[in-house]
Amino acid sequence: MQSMAHYLPVSRVARLVGQPRSAIQRMIHDGELSTFDGMVDMNELLRVFPDVQWEDDGEFKRVEEIKAKAFGKRVYERALPDKEVLAERLYELGKEFAAAKSLLLHYDEVFRFLGDKLDDVAESGGAASVDAVAGLKQWLKRELEAAPGEAERAEALLAQESVMRIMSVQVTVQPSGHEFFVEGNDTLLEAALRAGIPLNYGCSNGNCGDCKARLVSGQVKKVHPHDYVLKEQDKANGAILLCSYTPITDVVVEANVSGAEDIPEQEIPTRVKAVEMLNEHLAALHLTAPRSQRLRFLAGQRVTLSADGAEGEYFVASCPCEDRHIELHVRRDNRGFSRKVFDGLGKDDGVLITGPRGRFVMKLDSRRPVIFVAWEEGFAPIKSLVQHAMSLETAESMHLYWVADKDGHYQDNLCRAWADALDDFVYQPLDRAPGAAAVAEAILARHADLARADIYAAGPDAFLKALEAGALARGLSPMGWHGEIVL
Asked: Under CATH, which number does the domain 370-485 receive?
């Protein structure tokens, strides 16, 4: 007997099997995994992933760790939803199970009715009819009592998915098609930003209304008050503030995704968290923004830093998904802000950020292979872009080339860690000694056909021109080239 159809969204399938969403989407594209209206049937999932042991996967382990209080208080609160939200999610899940049980009881009644009708047929016929009906009833009974071959794994999958739906709810953004999960006590806005999706917002605390969106489907709960007054017509159309609501069930929202031109210039007072010496000539400056005034920026953009009259412009090296943390790479040059950093800028000192600026940003709707190329300290914006691409989980594959002298790969271990952790990530450090044209040719020689690729490159003008010309000659679309001159 086949079990009742149970469909799962692609993002949740990726989590269940421990694969990047891009890998699942590639399987669908290649015909290895079938879908129905963008959803994957549970039986299809069991067929394609016969070796996955659902009960050993992440969500159950997280629940056990929480039960054992293995997390500190802050992480404990971060992992579990608010008790009222948790109660509502359990209630919604309970309604689904109640409906399923009701349907099974109905099937039981139908089977009894069918048995009675078969008895009537047997009584009105001859001996042959009695034997035929008896054989049919025995077959039906045997089939209904027999457990399907995948019953044990199917039960484990359903249990795993149920826990996952309580712990993390999926959100789909229209019209962009982006998907992300909301965990713990995050609002829709917090979870989107953590996933690298730059939904439009202003104050993030319910005053401005810039994060107003429309709830298309699903249920949400207000978890933070807001002073912004929604008009009655807005409410009737499903308007909510993303900074004040969290989802109870999987939801679809209609919301604007910010581009580089949509983000206003800001002045953010930050504090120094740490000054990390990357090598003799370079420092990573780690800043923390206020809770109520986070920096809005896109990966690949730059900002101006100032402290005590000293000023300098730098690319942000951290991902927008890192909440209040901002990382910048500062070269020692004994001038302006650089001199301030190397002359003793210390923990908790104030640094004013002005920005962001620049259009060297990620194409959020691309699902194609991505090639990142950094020349020496052009690694700062490339690092931000790589981390943003990782948080989005949409790139089919990623290649990172970092060109520098023998001491210039100052975060080489980080890049190697990315390559070790991700199946579709390749990292190659390269020596700059052969020169711009030769290095560009060496990179392109590894990619014979670039028709489906996107390239993000940061470095000196001569290198970028050589790389772009060679890439276009290998089929790269002009729309797939993204270059930023870094002196």
From this structure: 3.40.50.80
